[in-house]
Design brief:
About 10% of the residues lie in helices and about 45% in strands. It is mainly β. The two termini are about 40 Å apart.
Length: about 450
């Protein structure tokens, strides 16, 4: 005869076993809150005017170094690098090539870490006796692409004023002649954004060293200063304003307190009034005159979490599995195969609105991309690993209820199989890519 205490213990054990089995069958589904923001920043540094550094961030506040010395031009300097993502899928930078001269430089990259020099573009004014500084990209709402730069005809001590050039082809290789923006002399570091029907120009007054604010109904002006002197309360000795719009619609301005080697940001809901400046302590003393590009990754597609296997859409007898630490899509027959093809799907290591895949037979090891191949590696806790191991869900490119996975830290690149090996590729519009990059999540194979 068993005691009451033994019967209670047995009942509890049975309940726990039933609950565990239920959890294995009814896996939770992660909440997908919409696209996940990812921020890329390009900068030169206090230690080098000839090498560009690349950083990224999940929130536009805390930046992690992705690659130092990511780009060195064949000649000249790389000051003030400004970054965009063009319609061809490439990232482009434009930058200051020297303290004096009449050129600006261009380079491009498929992944923002490996860059190829394109050209130095002569923008005129006064040859080697002038200065051409701080080129900044501006994409207008009509799709036109512009570069706004500051130029002086009499060198570094001259009266700078902003000019713009406009791309005349889709490859960004042909440009109009420079056109004066209409801002008075002795203003540099002009950065333009458009909100509604109003153009906003944040620009450094080179006489007072304040960042001032002008608006216009057209890119051609007329520009009217609506914030002068210490209008924002940030003080003087500031330069290099750069803005990005946050997911909630607010705007963030970054600027460089160059004399003290400190970097700050401030936020605004309307571009006319800003909060107090907040120091970016991780960047102060290192980064100089940068721009920040926000990209949205993934969509509102929720991905089932817990123990799962990932089946290929166009080869439904094959599953994503790791073998010798490399990921493939292969049939799974043996117990080892099935274990290799089973992962614990968790909230993304870099962003909780996305996903990471932890091996069940090698706990602590995750699928990550390395040199654009998908591999299994131990989580080293570093920011780069977390980004490489995070993928955001999208409605499957092949349709039919499938799911595609976009790389969190390389937006626009998707997990796909090629020759049955898993890798990251830039999205293309062909049917083969769509099917290679689409998967279904199934019950675990192991």
């Amino acid at each position: 005869m068993t005691s009451p205490r033994s019967r209670i213990a047995a009942a509890v054990a049975t309940l726990l076993t039933t609950l565990a089995a239920s959890l294995l069958v009814h896996q939770p589904t992660a909440h997908a809150a919409g696209p996940a923001p990812h921020y890329v920043m390009t900068a030169f540094t206090n230690s080098s005017e000839s090498n560009m550094y690349v950083y990224d961030s999940t929130n536009g506040t805390n930046f992690n170094l992705v690659r130092s010395n990511a780009y060195t031009p064949p000649s000249g300097l790389i000051r003030d690098p400004s970054v965009i993502r063009h319609t061809d899928g490439y990232y482009y930078i434009v930058y200051t090539t020297g303290w004096t001269g009449n050129t600006i430089g261009f380079a491009r990259s498929a992944d923002y870490t490996t860059w190829t020099f394109l050209r130095d573009l002569t923008v005129g004014l006064n040859g080697s006796t002038g200065s051409t500084w701080a080129p900044e990209w501006f994409k207008d709402s009509d799709g036109s692409v512009h570069v706004v730069f500051s130029a002086s005809t009499t060198g570094t001590a001259g009266q700078f004023r902003p000019y713009r050039i406009t791309a005349t082809d889709s490859s960004l290789s042909a440009w109009t002649a420079p056109v004066a923006l209409g801002i008075p002399a002795n203003y540099i570091d002009s950065f333009i954004v458009k909100d509604g029907g109003t153009y906003h120009n944040f620009v450094k007054n080179e006489t007072t060293k304040y960042i001032e604010h002008a608006t216009a109904p057209s890119l051609n002006g007329p520009w009217q200063f609506v914030g002068t002197g210490n209008w924002a309360g940030w003080g003087s000795g500031l330069e290099g304003p750069a803005l990005v719009q946050l997911p909630d619609g607010r705007w963030r301005i970054y600027f460089d307190q160059y004399g003290a080697k400190r970097y700050f940001y401030a936020d605004s809901s309307n571009l006319n009034t800003f909060g107090a400046k907040v120091e970016l302590s991780e960047l102060s003393g290192t980064a100089r005159h940068f721009t920040v590009l926000r990209e949205n990754v993934g969509d509102s597609t929720a991905v089932p979490t817990g123990r799962r296997s990932v089946r290929s859409v166009n080869f439904p007898d094959r599953y994503v599995r790791h073998r010798n630490n490399v990921a493939y899509v292969e049939p799974v027959g043996t117990a080892t195969d099935r274990a290799d093809a089973t992962f614990t799907v968790v909230g993304g290591l870099a962003n909780g609105n996305c996903y990471s895949f932890e091996s069940v037979n090698f706990p602590g090891h995750y699928l990550r991309h390395s040199s654009m191949k998908l591999v299994l590696a131990r989580n080293d806790g570093l920011a780069v690993f977390r980004g490489d191991a995070t993928f955001c869900g999208r409605a499957g490119l092949a349709g039919g209820g499938s799911t595609s996975f976009e790389s969190y830290n390389f937006p626009g690149r998707y997990l796909r199989h090629f020759g049955f090996e898993m890798r990251l590729d830039l999205r293309s519009t062909d049917t083969v890519f769509a099917r290679d990059a689409s998967f279904t999540l199934t019950s675990p194979q192991a």
